[in-house]
Amino acid sequence: MPSETDPLARFGDVFARAAADAPFDYTAASLATADAAGQPSVRIVLVRSFDEEGFLFYTNYRSRKAADLDVNPRAALCFYWPWIDEQVRIEGTVARAGTALSDSYFAARPRGSQIGAWASEQSQPVEDRSVLERRYLEIERHYDGQPVPRPPHWGGYRLAPATIEFWKAGAYRLHDRWRYTREAGGWRVERLNP
To answer: Annotated catalytic sites, by residue?
Structure first.
């Protein structure tokens, strides 16, 4: 049994190990959502921070993932770091992060990414790339010499975990799996068969 009874502390340890000498962005995770009809959809997001309240990612509120979360505010994240042979799965409910948090994160983004958030009508059809590039240049000119404000249709989401599962590769496919399930007053911890 792991010594940690707090899955967020355990996640912090794994996340720090994944960050060391990471060959690519270790904040990348698969985010699975489902629409009102139950049709699943999965994509990669960057999880920018986490704390006791949950895991934060940012997106366009008009995107497909946002539309899914509007009608079905449950989702799952899956981190996989092959260079340390570990995976973490997180399931829970999702809500929009506060405007102050979204504003703060947006202000810290590179200027080009800020302009891109205005230029992209994420998940919507576009005639060709030149249309997107033209919009980008128009917005870049519009905000020349001034700060780029956060678009009202862009911001953060927080996934509040109900379960967190840790997976570590083992010899002969006898992997180590630990599941933490949130209960009143804390977390229930179970070892799972691989």
So the answer is: 173
Going from N- to C-terminal start, the domains of the chain cover 7-109+151-192
pLDDT at 123: 85
- Cα 45 to Cα 156: distance, rounded to the nearest angstrom: 12
Q: How many Å apart are CA 127 and CA 185, to the nearest integer?
A: 53
Q: Which residue is associated with the tokens 């009874």?
A: 5
Task: Name 121's bridge partners.
Answer: none
Helix (H, G, I), strand (E, B) or coil at 135: helix
Partners of 113 in beta bridges: none
Q: What is the mean pLDDT of each run of 10 residues along the chain (194 residues)?
A: 77 96 95 97 96 95 96 98 97 96 96 95 89 95 97 97 96 91 94 93
Describe the crossing of helices 129-142 and 111-119 by its angle, rounded to 10 degrees: 120
Burial status of residue 127 (CB atoms within 10 A of its CB: 0-12, 13-18, 19 or more):
exposed
Q: What is d(CA 7, CA 55) in angstroms, rounded to the nearest whole number?
A: 13
CATH for the stretch 7-109+151-192: 2.30.110.10
Distance CA 121, CA 103 (A): 19
Q: At 10, which helix (H) or strand (E)?
A: helix 7-19
